[in-house]
Specification:
With 467 residues, this protein is of the alpha/beta class. It contains 14 helices and 18 strands. Helix content is 31%, strand content 23%.
């Protein structure tokens, strides 16, 4: 049975255009855009008509950095693929790219199969995977080629977390050399984990155990140093590099310098670094534990440089690094020892709204909002133009967004499976009203109408920004 939907009289906003138009959808894909007020919509013969008068019609968000059900620090991220993708939809995100994990001593295939089993049949929206490479050896390098053929085209490595995910410079170089050959993209958690562990040990020996010390030991200079080292290793390998969750102005400077040299180096930041700071980490009565993530929150003065980086394209993507842990029973594991606080923040539901607030506040333009949250992540990770835009042939992943509605962010009203909000009490302007995923309504006028199992695994091509 063919199905047809028309979204009428909205302002269609993409990364490149703003146009008053009707969007015609057939069988889950965008069929055409027609100027508002014409008879094209009537001639189309729609089964469903959505009135978007006074609203924005935008592509569904692409969150290229989430961790559903991630095992970490003796516990698990509190959102499952079912709860996390439902919350993503409530926030206007229609595709996530999550991280499958290779454990040391195991193959990439085992890790990927484990994550497929977690996600399959449980997602409300479409999903894809990156692969965390924790154990670089000859077999792993061969497997990277096979995963790219299956549409898993990016590989994350860690310069942090010795004994867990950590790769040394030799392992990183070998993986980068392989990606230079097979077209894969190396994603890097850039912090000098070896040095950080020394500082953690010294801080605890001095009795500095509160959450705020998490930020003090994970120094901005050690993020910048690791970013510089990752860039130069990638340059030696002739490989592209994508640095995740950039938080410090010194790291942005390293990325800007590399891009000025013409290197294929890209940077991502996250809402927590744009809107939160070490003031949150210093909240009394262990409340600061809610804000422990890595890279850590920085002093407020770093925010201006991050916004500048987004405007000048020294930073290209805003993802969430959504990795929630409940305050009660999970974050509390670190009472008396900040190093035992599970690292991660909830945010998959908040990203699109926070970035719209940045439009309202004058940090970025409307089109840049869509660029950094939808189009660029889709291009970066081989999903464009299927995802990330509204154009004929694209998946009908579309959000009707009310730019005037006001809301107050709160754990009482969010849909993430976590007992606090990192943005509790924050007032924002703009709110998701209706969400379509491949033409099917997932959120309908602020009611959840989706279901687990609608979301499909989406194989990706390689990065679409490479020279």
């Amino acid at each position: 049975m063919s199905s047809r939907t028309v979204i009428r009289d909205g302002l269609v906003v993409t990364a490149s255009d703003e146009i008053h138009a009707d969007v015609l959808i057939e069988d889950g894909r965008v069929a055409a855009l027609a100027a508002s007020g014409t008879r094209a919509a009537e001639a189309f013969g729609a089964d469903r008509v959505v009135d978007a008068t006074g609203k924005y019609v935008i592509p569904g968000g692409v969150d290229a950095h989430t961790h559903m059900e991630l095992p970490f620090g003796g516990t698990f991220a509190s959102d499952t693929f079912e709860t996390g993708t439902r919350a993503a939809a409530w926030g206007g995100t229609t595709t996530i790219v999550d991280f499958a994990v290779q454990s040391v001593g195991h193959t990439l295939r085992e890790g990927l199969d484990t994550w497929h089993a977690k996600a399959e049949g449980n997602c409300a929206i479409d999903y894809a995977f990156h692969m965390i490479v924790s154990d670089v050896n000859d077999e792993t390098l061969k497997e990277m080629d096979l995963l790219i053929e299956e549409g898993v085209t990016s590989f994350k490595q860690f310069m942090a977390y010795p004994g867990v995910f950590y790769s040394d410079d030799g392992q990183i170089l070998r993986a980068m050399q392989r990606s230079a050959e097979n077209g894969g993209l190396i994603m890097m958690h850039a912090e000098n984990g070896i040095a950080i562990d020394v500082l953690v040990e010294q801080a605890l020996a001095r009795g500095e155990t509160d959450p705020r010390y998490h930020g003090e030991v994970r120094k901005a200079l050690l993020e910048a140093e690791a970013t510089h080292r990752a860039i130069r290793l990638a340059q030696v390998a002739g490989a592209p590099l994508y640095v995740v969750h950039v938080s410090a102005m010194e790291a942005v400077a390293e990325l800007a310098r590399a891009r000025d040299e013409g290197l294929n180096v890209f940077g991502e930041t996250c809402p927590q670094y744009l809107f939160l700071s070490t003031d949150n980490l210093a909240e009394p009565d262990f409340e600061g534990a809610k804000y422990v993530c890595s890279t850590p929150l920085r002093p407020r003065e770093h925010q201006a440089r991050l916004w500048q980086g987004l405007r000048t394209n020294d930073l290209q993507v805003v993802s969430t690094d959504h990795c929630p842990f409940c305050f009660v029973g999970q974050k509390e594991l670190g009472r008396g020892d900040f190093s035992k606080i599970p690292n991660g923040l909830p945010g998959v539901e908040n990203r699109m709204d926070l970035l719209h607030q940045a439009v309202v506040d004058g940090h970025i333009s409307r089109r840049r909002w869509i660029e950094i949250a939808c189009a660029t992540p889709a291009r970066m990770f081989g999903l464009y133009p299927k995802k990330g835009t509204i154009a004929p042939g694209a998946d009908a992943d579309i959000v009707i967004y009310d730019p005037h509605a006001e809301q107050v962010m709160s754990a009482r009203t969010h849909h993430m499976n976590v007992d606090y909000s990192a943005y509790e009490g924050r007032r924002t302007t703009g709110r998701v009203e209706t969400v379509l995923s491949r033409g099917e309504p997932v959120i309908t006028e602020r009611e959840y109408t989706g279901h687990a199992g609608h979301g499909a695994f989406t194989p990706r091509s390689t990065c679409q920004y490479l020279n």
